[in-house]
Structure formats: structure tokens, C-alpha cells
Design goal:
mainly alpha
């Protein structure tokens, strides 16, 4: 009898006895994400930890349990990772790493890129009003709409600042998923709204940018943006600090750490904790479906906005700007710029748009942070 009791207890402790159909659905979604990341190469640095966090929480929900939810008063491992998301620490550190890896030279050489980066935020504001129409309150709608910027860290940052932590998981997963699917989502929109003649436009080589310009850029942007929208300081400030590390040339160790070791540690912590926020109970509901759809609409509209401004600038400059680079105004760096290059090369293999597209691409990072700061200012955060 003791043996039977022991075996029965062991059986009761297995995950098979506690999983719901929803958990199995989420496990399948996690496996799909792992397939896309490993087999298809869609942003594996993001999708692998997110998918694995999703897998873990749907097998062992206590891995993200808060201390108040456990018998011994000690939270699950990923609960403490997740706290760093809610406190906006990990998104800000991600921005510092991005800054340390980013060359703002193409943006400095072609300041008109700022306009395309701004135009690509069009999807954010469209999604905001659609979310209001679908019944979300103002703060929830703002948090959801930032998905349109294709910027996972900013989405997490804004959701936390606006107190929308109950939506943080679906918002973050949608944002990172669409960042990963840029090569699938953007090309049809880009081809639909441009002509073959426009896609074949070859742009003049960018001017050389001096070291002084590159050093002054992060300092000036920090002063200007943070003076206008002080709430953007955690994101814009860290982005520009990382870039100043890179461009100053006097802190190689800090540049190396911010762009490599620290960046990858933060990606692991952020990715697994975001994935762990997608338990079946939290994720499989109507609100999540609305968020996923709104995120897709926002992303498509953002791509559309960037391309259409690119077309306008093409007309105004008498064919000197290829509209395809406008799509890179979403802040999925550098994937969106690579997609602009790929679509242009499909029409003309000798066309090289990558460096031109990097201007709107890095402008989009700043633009999305500014959009987040605007929403925080509106709601008095």
C-alpha cells in the first residue's frame, strides 16, 4: 500500500495531472516560435528565450508565482526577472545596448530620415483610436498602440509606466513577434504602394560624417528630446549614452560590455520573463486576441505611413529618394532596413539601399520613444 501511495503521489506531482487544454495550446505556440527562430532564423535572439519562457510557464506555472502566492513566501525564479521588466530596468538597459551597437551616421548624413522615422509612427496613433473604439481605456489603448513601432522594450516600458501590467505579457509577445516577422509582414505592403520604377531608384552615396558630429549627436538629442519630454529620459537617455560610449572612442571597455555581455544577459532575462507572462489563463482570452490584431494593424499602418512619406519625398526631390526606405522607419533595427534592401534588390540587384534605410530605421527608435513619452505626458505620468 505504501508503494501505491508513493506512486500515486508521484503521479499527482507530474504536470500531466494539472495542465489544461489552454496550457497545451500555449505549449504548441511556444514550439511554433522555436521553429520560426531556429529553423527560419526569425530574430532567434528574441524568439528563443521568449518561446522557452512560454514553454516553462505553461508546464510549471509556479515558476513566475509571486511570493504571496507560494507557501514559503519565496517567488518563482522568473517572477524576479519579470519584476525588472515592471520596474522598466531591462527595457532601459536594452536601449543602452542598442545605442552602443548603432551607427547614427546615416541619420546625421541625411536628416530628412527623421521625417520618415516620424511618419512610420502613424500606425501607433491609428491603433490608439482603434483600441479606444474596441473598448479599451485610454492607458490600455496607449500601451497597446506602441506595438506599431515594432519596439519590444518600449512597449514593455510604456505598459509598465501606465500601470497596464495585466496586459504586459500579450503586448510584449505581440511586439516581439511582429519584430521577428518583419520580413514577412512588410514586403507586401511595400510592393503594393510603390511602383517598379520607384523601387528601382538608386540614391546618391551618403556624405561622410565627421567624428565630432557623431559625438555631438547623442548629447544634442538627449538635451532636446528630454527637455521637451522629460519622461523619455530612461529610454532616449540610455540609447544616447550607449551611443556616446561608442562614438567617444575613449571607453572601449564600456562599449564592449554594453553592446555584448550586458546586452545579451538582459535579452535572456527579458525574453524569458516576457515569455513566462503568457500562461494560458493570462493569454487565451478575447482581450489578447484584440491586442494581437491591433498590433498587426498598427504595424502595417506604420509601414504604410513610412512608405507614403517616402513617395512624397521622392516626388518633391524629383526622384532622388527611394520610397522603400520609408518602411524602415519602424524601429525594428536593423531588420527593417535589411527588408528595404531586400525588396529593392529584388527589383534591381545592383541597387544598394541598406545604408540609406538605416537613417529612417534608427530615427524610428527615437520616434517610438518620443511617442511613448507623449502618451506618458498626456496621462500625467
Amino acid at each position: 500500500m505504501n508503494i501505491l501511495d508513493t506512486l500515486s503521489n508521484l503521479l499527482q506531482q507530474t504536470a500531466f495531472m494539472s495542465l489544461t487544454w489552454g496550457n497545451y495550446v500555449m505549449i504548441l505556440v511556444a514550439l511554433l516560435f522555436l521553429y520560426l527562430a531556429i529553423r527560419k532564423g526569425y530574430e532567434p535572439l528574441l524568439l528563443v528565450p521568449i518561446a522557452f519562457g512560454m514553454l516553462l510557464v505553461n508546464i510549471y506555472p509556479a515558476i513566475i508565482a509571486a511570493p504571496s502566492e507560494t507557501t514559503n513566501g519565496v517567488g518563482g525564479l522568473l517572477h524576479y526577472f519579470y519584476q525588472l521588466d515592471e520596474w522598466s530596468i531591462l527595457p532601459s538597459l536594452i536601449f543602452m545596448g542598442v545605442g552602443a551597437m548603432t551607427d547614427f551616421g546615416p541619420l546625421i548624413a541625411n536628416p530628412i530620415s527623421f521625417l520618415m522615422g516620424a511618419a512610420a509612427q502613424f500606425g501607433i496613433y491609428i491603433a490608439y483610436f482603434l483600441a479606444i473604439a474596441l473598448g479599451f481605456n485610454g492607458k490600455s489603448a496607449a500601451a497597446i498602440s506602441i506595438i506599431g513601432g515594432a519596439d519590444g522594450p518600449t512597449s514593455i516600458f510604456l505598459a509598465s509606466k501606465l500601470g497596464q501590467t495585466q496586459l504586459l505579457g500579450p503586448i510584449a509577445v505581440a511586439a516581439y513577434s511582429y519584430m521577428s516577422l518583419v520580413p514577412i509582414i512588410q514586403p507586401p505592403v511595400m510592393k503594393l504602394f510603390t511602383t517598379e520604377k520607384e523601387r528601382k531608384i538608386k540614391m546618391e552615396q551618403l556624405r561622410s560624417v565627421s567624428k565630432l558630429e557623431k559625438i555631438l549627436f547623442p548629447i544634442i538629442i538627449t538635451i532636446v528630446v528630454c527637455m521637451i519630454l522629460p519622461t523619455t529620459a530612461p529610454l532616449v537617455g540610455m540609447l544616447m549614452l550607449g551611443n556616446l560610449f561608442r562614438e567617444s572612442g575613449v571607453v572601449h571597455q564600456l562599449t564592449e560590455t554594453a553592446s555584448n555581455a550586458l546586452m545579451y544577459i538582459v535579452v535572456i532575462l527579458l525574453g524569458t520573463s516576457v515569455g513566462a507572462s503568457t500562461s494560458a489563463e493570462a493569454f487565451l482570452n478575447v482581450s489578447t486576441l484584440k491586442i494581437v490584431v491591433l498590433g498587426l494593424v498598427a504595424f502595417i499602418c506604420g509601414t504604410f505611413g513610412g512608405v507614403m512619406l517616402g513617395k512624397l519625398l521622392c516626388h518633391l526631390t524629383h526622384g532622388k529618394i527611394n520610397p522603400l526606405i520609408g518602411s524602415a522607419g519602424v524601429s525594428a533595427v536593423p531588420m527593417a532596413a535589411r527588408v528595404s534592401q531586400k525588396v529593392g534588390a529584388e527589383t534591381d540587384p545592383t541597387n544598394f539601399l541598406l545604408m540609406h534605410a538605416m537613417g529612417p530605421n534608427v530615427a524610428g527608435v527615437i520616434g517610438t520613444a518620443v511617442a511613448a513619452g507623449t502618451f506618458m505626458a498626456i496621462f500625467g505620468i
